[in-house]
Design goal:
106 residues; alpha+beta; 3-stranded mixed beta sheet; 3 strands; globular
């Protein structure tokens, strides 16, 4: 009998794809699906709503819109497989350092 293969969670897949694409100095991926139960796009099995905080040199010189587009391009496959919403906080290391005194990175 063959052992079932481990299937990574959506959060793990998002993190892996974002690490490969952006080599972040900071990356936090949070599943916020439970906060959206009953809302549009929410599914009983979850894994539909995520927040991502990402700090990377790759964002240097990019507008906020360009950063969001770059991240969405990297994770586009997940949107085709049930991901409904992705809240993004995207900064360069310098931008992050300037707000680091705050309690959170968003």
């Amino acid at each position: 009998m063959q052992k079932p293969e481990y299937e990574p969670t959506r959060a793990e897949r998002l993190e892996q794809a974002l690490r490969r694409a952006f080599s972040p100095t900071l990356l936090a991926v949070a599943d916020e699906s439970a906060r959206h139960i009953g809302h549009a796009g929410a599914r009983p099995e979850g894994e539909t709503h995520y927040s991502v905080a990402l700090v990377s040199e790759a964002f240097r010189g990019q507008s906020r819109v360009a950063r969001h587009r770059a991240v969405h391009d990297v994770v586009a496959q997940e949107f085709g497989q049930g991901l409904h919403a992705l809240a993004l906080t995207l900064r360069t290391p310098e931008e992050h350092a300037s707000v680091q005194g705050s309690a959170t990175i968003d």
